[in-house]
Amino acid sequence: MLKLKTYILSFVVLFLCCNNLQAQSLKDQVSNAYRSFSSHENIKNGISSLTVLNGKTGELIFSNNASIGLPTASTQKVITAITALDILGPDYKFKTTLSYSGELDTTGTLNGDIIITGTGDPTLGSERYEGTRKNTVLDKWISKIKTSGIQRITGRIIVDDLFLNGNDIPSGWTWSDMGNYYGAGVSGVNWAENKIGLTFKPGVIGAPAQLIALTDSLPEVTIINEVITSSNGSGDNVYAYAAPYSQIIYLRGTHGKDLKKKIEISDPNPALTLAYQLRSGLNEQSIFVDSIATTGKLLANQHILVPKSTTTLDTHESPKLTQIVHWFNQKSINLYGEALLKSIGFLSGNQTNSDEAAKLIAKYWEQKLKIPTGEIRAVDGSGLSPQARVTTMAMSKIMLYAQNRPWFTDFEKSLPTINGMTMKSGTIGGVLGYTGYQKTKSGNTVVFTLLVNNYAGGATTMRQEMFKLLNTLK
To answer: Using one digit for the tens of pLDDT, what is the confidence trace for 371-394?
Structure first.
């Protein structure tokens, strides 16, 4: 019996020693690789930070500059997603209602308005989900109006976009971003991911590139096209300059002569686009609308209140939050992050301002994981703002926390596979980042966050150097 106990004790000691040696070996490998990485000439005027945690125990394996807040780019999205899944819940759905005000008489005439009221659903009209596509939603709503007995509408089509402060942009977003699809504002009623596709016909090199088509018309907006045709292989360097509720969009930059793609820009007033499209669709079905298509914001500008609805015709629900998070991370859709951030702020502290909602997220993680609020100084939900400051330690701790949540499997699936690793990337001017999970040779999982700021040279070269460093975790 004594021999058996001695044997078991010896085995346990040997097992622990082996684990310690493996951990020590990994630590040494990462440390050596990071030393080489941080001395690369392309970051001699920049800064890098890396935190690696044991995915099972949370033990620190390696860190450097882990307490320094840095711009995150799109790696910020994992914090927004995890917070939303924790606070809103994995089955959370946004709701958009179709209703009318006034009275419906026996002749089928509605003496009132059709009203669409949103709660910030970022998927309404999106082509990414079967039930959210533009034609699917419009056909459903036109059918609901028709089957209710309405044959004529004497009032208006009103899309009430005032929830979540109307079409809004987080502070810190740049003028060169917000007119383009990835810089679209977030509205109380989003539509088709608040973007429009443009098709150009290139001319001779150095001459104007003609704008020949839009995927949807932009009501009450003037587009001024100053785009120039550039050489073959020069690609898409077209930028739109506009802001929420702008009535003029300037298109500037260059369009490669051989480029064959739609250029996507942001819709300054997606709620108005929806209102016009619904009005047009009703007229095509011989349900005539006597008055205008408008929005809650446009009425508020005239000091007119949106009338109270008297009858609800439909309540449209978004896909579940886990499905939204999937595309949020897979395709890095900034709009989704801003809608989630504002929803978190509204539900947890009645705050629809992005800055205030971001502060609530920092307070949440201070309470949950004792992360100092100074380590999470985000100003948006997507990381597009260069003003964001987050530490790699804070991000890694939140990623570690996610592993033990019931929704983790769905969250992990939302992360792209990059360099053979499960991780979210981030890119803005002078900033590159990766955060994710990786199984080591020993079969253990590690959690990591790597941020680089103010690097020199091209992004491709810097990424390859980052991959070499992260490969030591495999």
So the answer is: 999 999 999 999 999 999 999 999
CB 230 within 8 A of CB 237: yes
What value does the mean pLDDT take over residues 240-268? 97
* Cβ atoms 399, 435 nearer than 8 A: yes
Contacts of 431 (CB under 8 A, 6+ apart): 70, 71, 72, 73, 386, 451, 452, 453
Could you tell me the two tokens for 434?
Answer: 């990766």
Q: What integer best gives the mean pLDDT of the chain?
A: 94
**DSSP code for 163:** G
Strand order in the sheet with 263-266: 210-214, 195-201, 263-266
CB neighbours (10 Å) of residue 97? 16
Residue range 94-137, pLDDT digits in tens: 999 999 999 999 999 999 999 999 999 999 999 999 999 999 99
CA–CA separation, 20 vs 56, rounded Å?
A: 14
Split at pLDDT 50, 70, 90, the class of 12 is very low
459-470 and 2-38 helices, crossing angle to 10°? 160
- Residue 107 to residues 103, 104, 144, 150, 280: CA-CA distances in angstroms? 11, 8, 17, 9, 22
**E strand or H helix at 186:** none
Query: For residues 119 and 188, is the Cβ–Cβ distance under 8 A?
Result: yes
pLDDT digits (tens, 9 = 90+) for 308-318: 999 999 999 99
Q: Looking at residue 7, what is its pLDDT?
A: 47
- Least Cα distance to 290 among 158, 157, 155 occurs for 155
Is the sign of the CA dihedral 284, 287, 289, 295 positive or negative? negative
Partners of residue 314 on adjacent β-strands: 98
